[in-house]
Amino acid sequence: MIVLEFKAKGKTTQYTAIDEAIITAQFVRNKSIRFWMDNRGVGQKELYRLSKVLRDEFPFVKALK
Protein backbone atom coordinates (compact mmCIF):
# COMPACT_ATOMS: atom_id res chain seq x y z
CA MET A 1 0.00 0.00 0.00
CA ILE A 2 1.29 3.44 -0.88
CA VAL A 3 0.78 6.14 1.72
CA LEU A 4 1.40 9.75 0.88
CA GLU A 5 1.69 12.33 3.62
CA PHE A 6 2.14 16.04 3.37
CA LYS A 7 1.56 19.22 5.31
CA ALA A 8 -0.46 21.86 3.59
CA LYS A 9 -1.35 25.37 4.46
CA GLY A 10 -4.54 26.48 2.85
CA LYS A 11 -7.91 28.01 3.25
CA THR A 12 -10.94 26.28 4.68
CA THR A 13 -12.53 26.00 1.24
CA GLN A 14 -9.43 24.25 -0.08
CA TYR A 15 -9.48 21.76 2.78
CA THR A 16 -13.16 21.10 2.12
CA ALA A 17 -12.48 20.45 -1.58
CA ILE A 18 -9.67 18.02 -0.70
CA ASP A 19 -11.93 16.18 1.76
CA GLU A 20 -14.69 15.87 -0.86
CA ALA A 21 -12.22 14.51 -3.42
CA ILE A 22 -10.94 11.93 -0.93
CA ILE A 23 -14.47 10.81 -0.07
CA THR A 24 -15.39 10.51 -3.75
CA ALA A 25 -12.23 8.51 -4.53
CA GLN A 26 -12.99 6.16 -1.64
CA PHE A 27 -16.55 5.73 -2.92
CA VAL A 28 -15.32 4.75 -6.38
CA ARG A 29 -12.70 2.44 -4.89
CA ASN A 30 -15.25 0.70 -2.68
CA LYS A 31 -17.70 0.27 -5.56
CA SER A 32 -14.92 -1.21 -7.70
CA ILE A 33 -13.83 -3.61 -4.97
CA ARG A 34 -17.42 -4.75 -4.39
CA PHE A 35 -17.91 -5.28 -8.15
CA TRP A 36 -14.67 -7.27 -8.29
CA MET A 37 -15.66 -9.40 -5.28
CA ASP A 38 -19.09 -10.17 -6.72
CA ASN A 39 -17.73 -10.99 -10.19
CA ARG A 40 -14.50 -12.94 -9.85
CA GLY A 41 -12.27 -12.84 -12.90
CA VAL A 42 -13.09 -9.21 -13.68
CA GLY A 43 -10.31 -7.47 -15.54
CA GLN A 44 -9.13 -3.92 -15.95
CA LYS A 45 -11.46 -3.25 -18.90
CA GLU A 46 -14.54 -4.16 -16.90
CA LEU A 47 -13.45 -1.93 -14.02
CA TYR A 48 -12.93 0.94 -16.45
CA ARG A 49 -16.45 0.39 -17.79
CA LEU A 50 -17.75 0.43 -14.22
CA SER A 51 -16.09 3.79 -13.59
CA LYS A 52 -17.79 5.17 -16.71
CA VAL A 53 -21.14 3.92 -15.41
CA LEU A 54 -20.48 5.50 -12.01
CA ARG A 55 -19.65 8.81 -13.70
CA ASP A 56 -22.99 8.76 -15.50
CA GLU A 57 -24.93 7.67 -12.42
CA PHE A 58 -23.41 9.96 -9.78
CA PRO A 59 -22.64 13.61 -10.59
CA PHE A 60 -20.08 13.96 -7.81
CA VAL A 61 -18.00 11.16 -9.37
CA LYS A 62 -18.00 12.98 -12.70
CA ALA A 63 -16.53 16.04 -10.98
CA LEU A 64 -13.55 13.97 -9.76
CA LYS A 65 -12.11 13.23 -13.23
Written overview of the protein:
By secondary structure, the chain is mainly α. Helices cover 69% and strands 0% of the residues. The chain has 3 helices and no strands. α1 (12-38) packs across α2 (44-57). The longest helix has 27 residues, at 12-38. The protein starts with 11 loop residues before the first helix and ends with a helix. The mean pLDDT is 88.
Short description:
The chain is mainly α and 65 residues long.
Give descriptors for this structure.
65 residues, single chain, 3 helices, mainly alpha
Order of helices and strands: HHH
Number of strands: 0
- SS summary, helix count: 3
Strand content: under 5%
Mean pLDDT: 88
Helix content: 55-70%
Assign the structural class, choosing from mainly alpha, mainly beta, alpha/beta, alpha+beta, or little secondary structure: mainly alpha
| Contiguous runs where pLDDT drops below 50 for at least 5 residues | none
Largest sheet: none
Radius of gyration: 14 Å
Shape: globular
Distance between the termini: 22 Å
Mind sketching the topology for me?
Blueprint: H1 12-38, H2 44-57, H3 59-62
Helix pairs in contact: 1-2
